[in-house]
Amino acid sequence: MAVDREHVLKEAAGLLTRKATASMDEIAKAAGISRATLHRHFAGRDALIRALEDLGLAQFEQALDAARLDEGDAVGALRRLLAEAEPVFAFMAFLCTENQLFEGDLHEGWDRLDARINAVFRRGQEEGCFRIDLSSVWLTEALYGLIGAGAWAVHDGRVARKDLNHSIAELLLGGARRSMEK
Amino acid sequence: MAVDREHVLKEAAGLLTRKATASMDEIAKAAGISRATLHRHFAGRDALIRALEDLGLAQFEQALDAARLDEGDAVGALRRLLAEAEPVFAFMAFLCTENQLFEGDLHEGWDRLDARINAVFRRGQEEGCFRIDLSSVWLTEALYGLIGAGAWAVHDGRVARKDLNHSIAELLLGGARRSMEK
DNA sequence: AACGCGTGAGACGTCACTGTCTCATTCGGG
DNA sequence: CCCGAATGAGACAGTGACGTCTCACGCGTT
C-alpha cells in the first residue's frame, strides 16, 4: 500500500535523465502511481528534485565510503570506486545533467564528493602512476562524462550493462595512466 | 540590420546546453534580439531546435570532411577529427544532450556521422593500434561524453579552453590504444 | 523627403502544466 | 466484520510560456 519513495525517485531519475522536461504526470506514470499520490509524497516539483539530489548524493557518498579510496594505490581505489558506484550510475547521470540545469545553484554536498574523487586522481599523480599533463580536475570531469555517456549507452542498448564498468574503468585508467609502465 | 541567423543559433545552443528549459524569451535575450524577431526567423521552438540540429550536424560533418578520416593511421585521424571539431564542441555538446531529449526521434543525419566516427575506431582496432576489449560503439559514445564533459568544464572555468583538445585527445587515445606498444 | 524593410515593444487568446481540492475505492489490521 | 489509511480519478483555478498580432520607431535606399 505504502508507496516506495525510493522506487519513485529511481524511476524519476531515469525519466528525468532522458527527458529533463518531463511533466509531473509523466513522472507519476513512469513510477506507476497517480499524479495525486506523487504530490502527496513530494510537495512539488522542486521538492522532488531536491529529494532526488539528496538520495543520489547519499548513495554516491555511501559508494565512496565503501570503496575505501585511501587504501592501496590510486588505480585500485578508482576500480573500487567504479565497482561500488555502478548501481547508482543512473542517479549520477541525473546529478551531472541536473547540475548543469541549475547554473551556480548546486547542492552543497556535491563539492565534498567532488573533492574526494579529485583527491584520488591527485594522489595517483603524486604516486607517479597517473600522468600529470592531464589535470586531476579534468580527470574528475571526464569520469562524470564517461559515467553519463555509459549510462545513456546502456539505456538504449548500445553497450551491455555487464560491460559498462569494464568499459569505463579501462578507458579512464588507460587514458590516465602513464604509458611508460606496464 | 538583418539578424545573423547563425549567431542566434550559436547563442541558443550555448544557452540551451546549460539550461534545457530556457524559454523563447530567454533565448531571444541571450541572442540580443526581441522575442518577436526570434519568432520571425524561426516559426517556433520546434523549428528553432530543428535548425539548431541542422546547423550543428552540418558543421560537424564539415569538420569530419576536413579531418580526412581515411588517411594515415586511426590515431592521427582521431587527432585531426578533434582538432577540426574543436570549434563546434559547443554545438556537439548540445546535440548530445538534445538527442537524449527526443528519445527515438533522432535526426536522420546523425546516424551517418555516427557511423563515420565508429568506422575510425573500428579501423584502429583492425590495424591493431586500438584495444579490442572496448567496442568501437563504446569508444564512439565515450568520445561524445568527453566532448560534452569538456565543453561543460571549459564553460565554468575548470579546464582552460586551450587545454581542452589535448585533454580529450590524450585521455581518449590513451584509453583506446593498446598498452603494449610505445 | 518619401518610402520600405526589419526591428522592438507590447497586447492578446490559447494551451499545458501545476498545485490543491474532493470523492469514491481498495486494501489491511483490529 | 468494520474502520481507517492510502490511493486513483477527476475537477478547479492560477501561472507561465507560446504563437500571433498590431503599432511605432530606426535606418537605409531611392
UniProtKB/TrEMBL annotation, chains A, B:
Annotated DNA-binding ranges come to: 23-42
Q: Which InterPro entries match?
A: Homeodomain-like_sf, HTH-type_TetR-like_transc_reg, HTH_TetR, Tet_transcr_reg_TetR-rel_C_sf
PROSITE patterns, alphabetized:
HTH_TETR_2
Q: Name one Pfam family in it.
A: TetR_N
SUPFAM superfamilies, A to Z:
Homeodomain-like (SSF46689), Tetracyclin repressor-like, C-terminal domain (SSF48498)
Q: Which residues form the HTH tetR-type domain?
A: 2-60
Which parts of the chain are coiled coil?
Answer: none
Q: Which UniProt keywords apply?
A: DNA-binding, Transcription, Transcription regulation
* Protein name in the entry: TetR family transcriptional regulator
Classification lineage: Bacteria, Bacillati, Actinomycetota, Actinomycetes, Kitasatosporales
